[in-house]
């Protein structure tokens, strides 16, 4: 009779209880032997029936959820749950099923550790059951701990054959040709008979067929030698874990190791993952082996096998070491063990350490004095050694049994091992902190909402279509007359101190102006940052401003060029440089005859154009791509002529790197621009967007020290001269916001205040974001005015009679910036990269 059928009953016997049905079925058999067989079969099937019930409920409920069956009768799923008392019925079964599944998975993983394969692969087809129940997995786990896979398969096949033969032609379930739980129990019983006193610290010599737990061994250790070690360890009382030589209970709490032998008649709960650390308060005075713990008094506690005097001190890594060698009268250890320990210099590799441990186990750990036992534990496998002798021997035995899975053992019980001999754990990072912080949530934002919040409705469509956009009056908070006048003074000051390189065209750049007060101020502007974060293709909000020079053209200067801020070949290959947007603030109203020019929408055609370049044999590999000659007449017909894109004063120009852009050939009036070059940071605050650029730490140091970076935003080294020191007349502006600090490297994006401000600025509340911007910009103006007053003092003290402010105060004529010796450079005369101030990065309006 099948147990499920028995429980379900039949229509013709609706009034009979389960007990009556079982008794009736058993009484119908003609002998006690048959009745016993049937009883055992029912009991064996009971666990599987319970498991099948849980699976049935889980599958049924899952089907109901997937197909939304409740909608045919109930208004909601909650209504159905109330009707069927879900919390007290179905939910209980679902939780039990989840627990059962997790236990089965855990058992399967442990079996894989011992046998090298999960159970469904370890057992051959001929004996593999169609399904592994929890009870079956538990018994297979016990078997895997004490018997190699090859031998286990032979024994299981033999037991299956014996069971089938015994069942005869009854046709009952016991004739099944695959492994049943009872087969595994029989094999376990058979193995116990091979080592009858295993669990009682047997001193008898095992048979020659005895094998080591798990059919594996470390490289370099002969198998014959390992068998001898196993035999010797049993003979010397070191193969079991229950007692030491005096018969004292092991202070590990009696839990058996995963790979060790265990009482095969113990309950299923014996299969717990791994013996955890010792029970607290067990009387052995063991600390929770933290690195560098004090050893304590070697002559107190329960350990009675300590011999000799010893001195304990700390080595350079903070781990404890034994430094005094025992006296001959107190130590009778094998010279091989002593010499092996003394020969170890520094950390030993596992293979050499296990060889030495194998020697000690063959000799018998009880024959090693306590001092050398401690040294052995540290030098062979890197164990902490501030504990009793029996516990130390236990852990050495655990390490030996898990010699093929030492990394697993170290991850499982990191507090057993020295810090230098185990993987890093969370406590290592906490050091003196007590708790782990709650990890921040992944931050996402609506880029279109943020973009149009500051650029206006419909601006995102323009950006997507053209890849470039001009947003007027975005920086109107700088429009106060006194602020504009101070900005003019700063530009005049840096022109006063600027030295043009002989024989090189200035091309309208102030190459000494990296950290003026106005530059430091606008780099921290929340709106400029938000626009760049929203417009970047990768939506990376972790940005930092890359220090760059300013544009300040004179009438009549040559400024013409046409290029791409990309290594086009590399961009087409892997997208390199595609996130580095160029953006600039115009300080003067630009006109069509003196402004940036560009090809709107070219980002849609750059790959087609690059293919055309290859076909022409004109592919380039520079940091930027010179388009003055490469963008030919046919290209212009197909994809458009470069057109003027004048920007009004205090407006923002934002451009994708795939847009061909440049400048009108000559300057007819003064034109000044500021650049932020917001560059992406990786989530570890280590590296930046572009290969070859400075690291985050180096760039933060540049901001801190007001020094020019040795690499440009493109990664190229400057070619027009780089100041070797901080401009002596510069001052640092004070902080105006947490986000502002992050943008100039004073904080990281992991800073809680910066993240809170980010959530407001890039969040969904438009009113809150605008209010935040107004507040921060007001602070920025205050900090600018404070710093400007300091600038007067610092620049005057730094340059004396050559000071800009001193000469202006005395009414002396300013020394003329004579650029008459500059070589006029046209875009046809030089390489396109040479048209740029510091590199082939952006043009005069480089954004």
From TrEMBL:
Residue stretches spanning the membrane: none
Segments of skewed composition (Polar residues): 198-210, 324-334
Gene3D superfamilies: q2cbj1_9rhob like domain
Positions of region (Disordered): 197-219, 234-334, 810-847
Biased composition range(s): Basic and acidic residues: 296-307
Biased composition (Acidic residues): 249-261, 268-295, 818-836
Stated name of the protein: Uncharacterized protein
Organism expressing this protein natively: Glutinoglossum americanum
């Amino acid at each position: 009779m099948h147990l499920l059928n028995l429980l379900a009953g039949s229509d013709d016997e609706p009034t009979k209880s389960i007990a009556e049905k079982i008794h009736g079925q058993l009484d119908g058999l003609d002998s006690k032997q048959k009745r016993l067989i049937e009883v055992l079969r029912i009991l064996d099937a009971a666990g599987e029936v319970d498991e099948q019930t849980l699976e049935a409920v889980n599958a049924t409920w899952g089907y109901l959820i997937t197909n939304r069956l409740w909608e045919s009768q109930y208004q909601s799923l909650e209504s159905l749950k109330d009707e069927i008392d879900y919390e007290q019925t179905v939910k209980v079964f679902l939780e039990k099923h989840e627990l059962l599944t997790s236990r089965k998975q855990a058992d399967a993983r442990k079996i894989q550790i011992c046998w090298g394969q999960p159970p469904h692969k370890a057992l051959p087809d001929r004996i593999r059951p169609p399904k592994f129940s929890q009870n079956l997995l538990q018994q297979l786990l016990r078997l895997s701990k004490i018997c190699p896979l090859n031998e286990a398969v032979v024994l299981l096949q033999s037991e299956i054959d014996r069971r089938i033969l015994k069942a005869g032609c009854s046709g009952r379930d016991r004739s099944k040709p695959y492994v049943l739980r009872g087969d595994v129990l029989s094999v376990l019983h058979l193995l116990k008979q091979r080592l009858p006193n295993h669990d009682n610290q047997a001193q008898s010599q095992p048979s020659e067929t005895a094998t080591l737990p798990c059919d594996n061994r470390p490289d370099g250790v002969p198998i014959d030698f390992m068998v001898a070690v196993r035999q010797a360890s049993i003979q010397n009382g070191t193969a079991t874990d229950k007692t030491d030589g005096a018969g004292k209970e092991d202070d590990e709490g009696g839990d058996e190791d995963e790979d060790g032998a265990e009482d095969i008649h113990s309950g299923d709960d014996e299969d717990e993952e791994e013996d955890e650390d010792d029970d607290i308060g067990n009387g052995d005075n063991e600390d929770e082996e933290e690195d560098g713990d004090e050893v304590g008094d070697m002559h107190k506690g329960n350990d009675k096998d300590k011999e000799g005097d010893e001195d304990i001190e700390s080595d350079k890594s903070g781990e404890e070491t034994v430094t005094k060698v025992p006296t001959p009268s107190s130590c009778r250890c094998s010279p091989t063990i002593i010499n092996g320990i003394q020969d170890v210099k520094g950390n030993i590799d596992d293979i050499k350490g296990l060889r030495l441990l194998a020697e000690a186990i063959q000799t018998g750990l009880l024959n090693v004095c306590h001092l050398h036992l401690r040294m052995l534990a540290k030098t062979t496998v890197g164990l902490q050694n501030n504990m009793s002798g029996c516990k130390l021997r236990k852990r050495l035995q655990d390490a030996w049994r898990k010699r093929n899975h030492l990394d697993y053992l170290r991850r499982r019980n990191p507090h057993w091992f020295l810090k230098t001999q185990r993987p890093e754990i969370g406590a290592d990072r906490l050091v003196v902190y007590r708790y782990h912080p709650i990890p921040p949530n992944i931050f996402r934002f609506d880029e279109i909402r943020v973009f149009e919040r500051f650029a206006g409705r419909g601006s995102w469509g323009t950006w997507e279509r053209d890849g470039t956009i001009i947003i007027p009056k975005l920086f109107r908070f700088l429009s106060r007359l006194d602020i504009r006048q101070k900005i003019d003074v700063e530009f005049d000051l840096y022109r006063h101190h600027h030295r043009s390189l002989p024989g090189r065209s200035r091309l309208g750049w102030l190459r000494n102006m990296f950290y003026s007060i106005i530059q430091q101020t606008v780099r921290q502007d929340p709106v400029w940052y938000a626009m760049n974060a929203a417009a970047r293709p990768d939506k990376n909000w972790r940005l930092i401003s890359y220090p760059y020079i300013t544009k300040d053209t004179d009438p009549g200067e040559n400024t013409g060029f046409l290029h791409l801020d990309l290594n086009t070949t590399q961009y087409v290959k892997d997208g390199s440089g595609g996130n580095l947007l160029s953006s600039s603030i115009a300080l003067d109203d630009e006109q069509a005859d003196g402004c940036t020019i560009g090809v709107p929408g070219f980002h849609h055609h750059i790959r087609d154009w690059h293919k055309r370049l290859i076909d022409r044999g004109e592919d380039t590999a520079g940091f930027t791509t010179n388009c003055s000659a490469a963008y030919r007449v046919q290209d212009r017909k197909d994809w458009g002529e470069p057109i003027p894109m004048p920007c009004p004063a205090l407006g923002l120009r934002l451009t994708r790197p795939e847009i061909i852009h440049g400048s009108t050939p000559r300057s007819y009036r003064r034109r000044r621009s500021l650049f932020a070059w917001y560059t992406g940071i990786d989530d570890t605050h280590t590296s930046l967007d572009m290969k070859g650029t400075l690291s985050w730490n180096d760039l933060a140091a540049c901001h801190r020290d007001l020094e020019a970076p040795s690499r440009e935003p493109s990664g190229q080294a400057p070619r027009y001269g780089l100041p070797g020191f901080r401009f002596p007349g510069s001052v640092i502006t004070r902080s105006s916001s947490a986000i502002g600090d992050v943008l100039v490297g004073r904080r990281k994006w992991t800073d809680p205040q910066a993240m809170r401000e980010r959530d407001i600025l890039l969040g969904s509340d438009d009113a809150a974001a605008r209010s935040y911007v107004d507040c921060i910009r007001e602070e920025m103006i205050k900090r600018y005015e404070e710093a400007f007053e300091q600038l007067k003092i610092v620049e005057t003290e730094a340059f004396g009679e050559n000071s800009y402010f001193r000469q202006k105060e005395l009414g002396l004529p300013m020394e003329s910036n004579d650029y008459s010796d500059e070589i006029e450079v046209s875009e046809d005369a030089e390489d396109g990269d040479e048209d740029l101030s510091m590199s082939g990065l952006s043009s005069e309006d480089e954004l």
